[in-house]
Here is the input.
Amino acid sequence: MKIGIEAERANLPNPTGVERYAAELIRQLARIGGAHEYVLYFRTQPQDWFYQLPKNFRIRVIPFPKFWTQIRISWELLLHPVDALLILASALPIYHPKRSLFTAHDVAFEMFPEAFTPFMLKYQKWSTRFAVRHAARILSVSEATKRDLVKFYGIDPAKIDVTPLGFDSAKFHPQGYEEVQSVLDKYGLVYQKYVLFVGTIQPRKNLEKLAEAFHQLRTQNHVEEKLAIFGARGWLWEPIVEKIKALGADGSIKYFDYASKEDLPFLYAGARLLTLPALYEGFGLPPLEAMASGVPVVVSNISSLPEVAGDAGVLVDPNSADSIAAGLLRVLTDPQLRENMIAKGLARAKEFAWENTARKTLAAIESLK
Here is the structure.
């Protein structure tokens, strides 16, 4: 079977969760092997590692200024047909083969429309509805996202395959002071002396409530740890960063921009705990990668986060600063709880692997007739 894959998302130099998923999926499909031929579509010049893929992977660079997926890939498929097509986000080309699939990461635009520009909101709604209507199968990164798809689009659940994300065990694993402190020095952080947040700065990440909760911890419970926030600036980031800086004016809250993929494993491993009290997550890679790094996690009790953390995390009400503060305090001050969470987190993380993601994805493609 000749399988076309939209690979531009895997090509970004500063990847967030969706882009890391795309890159890892392609790597694992290459490792699995098999008789299939793959065609990877790029809008920009591919990174060097794509050229090291096996001979059954072919690269097609097809630049186009706007609506690349919908128009340019359609044109490519008309000229050079494939047997099946995989788009790694909620979009499909206008022209596509009968055996087409796409990956649904979340439906945040349906739940938080105010967090998107008017153009992006219209585009997301249109492209997702088109993809839902025309895809042969849909890949969902979590059971929570599958439920959301059924709720908002009335899809038959049998049309959706859940392909949970994974982590790279070569990068994300427990590390001690000697291994991580030189990286932490770059950010003015000290091993085991900070609470970590990783994620795009946008309203649904709930950072303002997190900052309130942490300020409460500092003033009422006098915890010594700092809150270290790493994230690229998304839509409506300005008031969020302003509040973070105001509540952390004493130096207790530090905001950094995007954490490089090279530094991220060390930032996880050096943290006292990771927190993600988000209002909504399609999956939530940071808690998984933190657990794999031997770090306890405090996450929201809604959306996909309980599904990822299982019984290894402390769950909090993201709408309550008191609940978030209480969850953080428990993990910061109870040594026995921390030990139990670390052990459970390491075991929980082993249930997620990129190879499994790739195998389930390939099985979904091969199931199409």
User: Anything to note?
Assistant: The radius of gyration is 21 Å. The mean pLDDT is 96. DSSP finds 14 helices and 13 strands in the chain. The first helix runs from residue 17 to 32.
